[in-house]
Amino acid sequence: MGGIGGAGGAGGAGGALPPAEAVCDDQADEDGDGAIDCDDSDCAESPSCQPPQGLTQDDIQAIFEAECTPCHIRNTTFGLNLANDFTATTFNVPSRQSELDYIEPGDHTRSFLWHKINGSQRDVGGGGRMPDNGPPFLDQETIDAIGAWIDALPH
Q1: pTM for the full model?
Q2: I need a labelling partner for 99 at 20 to 30 A (CA). Which of 40, 90, 105, 145 fits?
Q3: Angle at Cα 99 formed by Cα 90 and Cα 60, nearest 5°?
Q4: Local structure of residue 101 (DSSP, 8 states)
Q5: Tens-digit pLDDT profile for residues 89-140
Q6: In this structure, are residues 18 and 32 in contact, taking their beta carbons and an 8 Å threshold?
Q7: Partner residues linked to 103 by β-bridges
């Protein structure tokens, strides 16, 4: 086997350095250094190894307007209006189905609205999972991104 210190590796015949990681999203260790893809320092700048860009308030507003406002508009369902500016009716506003606020800035686990879209609402209050027209519900990546957005809010 080649590798660092082996034939053809650093310190081996010719003192050649091992090749850099060639592809950063293929689950292979092309350069033989024991680090795969994003765990390899050669991939630090690769776009596939960058953290996903977080959602913005506008992104979440668009999700709520597409998925939730057929019911949650003009305070018709549990008094929760998610149209236009959802923050006005959710931030630090007590839920009617839980002891939690709809959104507790800085803590998605204390945000009833997150539990409703995550499907864990019965653990903290009650009611059905949202959106009410699911399944399909929001995908887990979107749910996690909303949770990360809530966590990043100043409290």
Answers
A1: 0.64
A2: 145
A3: 25
A4: B
A5: 999 999 989 999 999 999 999 999 999 999 999 999 988 999 887 788 999 9
A6: yes
A7: 91
